[in-house]
Amino acid sequence: MTLQSWLVMGMLSAFAVGCGRDRAPDDRPPPLSERRELVSAPAVKLGPWEDCTSFGSAGCSSGLCFKTSPERTQGFRCSASCRSDADCGNLTCQQVYPSEKGWFCLPALPRDGGAP
Q: Which of 29, 88, 32 lies closest to 64, judged by CA?
């Protein structure tokens, strides 16, 4: 047999052995995905910028629950679509993405331009 034949047979053997083994259970958390709604919603719907971590968008009166912090399981806040600051109470109407429907009620940005 030639060296090339031995290499091919070795790779095929390694592939066959590797395919036959069961993998160990994966105990890592699932990858990030869309917000999962829980079975029940609160008795009273949440208003803009109230914490919707427990109930997701089902808990918000607007149906919009935004992720607002880097922590995996924290930092979800209700928002609402808007056309002007008058629609937002103590929040401001800000454009989140370039579209006619891309305006939402959010806290005012600090004057230094940093995160709220």
A: 88
Q: Which residue has the tokens 């999962």?
A: 36
Which residues is 78 bridged to in the sheet?
65
Kindly report, residue by residue over 34-74, the tens digit of the pLDDT: 555 555 667 788 988 999 988 888 889 999 999 888 888 88
Amino acid at 54: S
Mean pLDDT across the stretch 82-100? 92
In terms of Cβ atoms closer than 10 Å to its own Cβ (0-12, 13-18, 19+), residue 45 is: middle
Best CA proximity match to 47, nearest among 7, 77, 70, 26: 77
CB-based burial label for 76 (10 Å; 0-12, 13-18, 19+): buried
d(CA 93, CA 67): 17
* Token code pair at residue 3: 């060296």
